[in-house]
Amino acid sequence: MRYAIVGGPGRSFPDGDPVLAGAVAPEEAQVVLCLGGAHYAPSGREAAVLIELGTECLGVHAGEEAGSGAVLGFARYRNGDDPPSALVELVRRPETTAAALAAARAVLEGAGLAVVVCTDQAGRIIDRLVRPKYNAALRLLDEGLATQADMDLTCRMGLGYPDGPLERVLRGGLAHHHDVTRALFETYGTAGFAPARRAVVAAQRRERAERG
Length: 212
Prior knowledge:
Elements: E1 3-7, H1 18-21, E2 31-35, E3 48-52, H2 59-62, E4 71-76, E5 87-91, H3 98-110, E6 114-118, H4 126-142, H5 148-159, H6 165-172, H7 174-188, H8 197-211
Parallel strand pairs: 1-2, 2-3, 3-4, 5-6
Antiparallel strand pairs: 4-5
Helix pairs in contact: 4-7, 7-8
């Protein structure tokens, strides 16, 4: 299925990603991917229009009222500045048609990506699951209840994780973690999403560096 890309490159498909090279002109495409906040007005002939999301809901871009059944959201999971993973969260809404969902999956899976489908919630599935765990690990570290090495080793050896929570969140960047968790905390108000102290400090240091 042919697809076009508008805007970008975006976090999901950075420069050099093979998905970018496979795109055609919008008028030739059945599916349009809108990257990096690019605006695209559907013509009605597309099988699906996919809008790249950060932590925000698809409703921010498409409105909360029932709209086109061909518009979906998506985000390719990426741990901070790590290369994007092969996992894509595909956001559907009640009015999403089966045909649009199938077209979106065909393009993403045709690019070798794994697709999970979720409803339109800020943070979708992954960030809502992992960010409270990262915050908890950072708070335990602050309180001196365990070392980073012990917590990471426990998760790797005891739970079979490929890496520990602290090494993962530190590799992705504490300032980035702060931005994600703060957005989720402002949306849901749940204590687990409140940015941990070390993440707040990292964000404040970033702001100082940007101000010079």
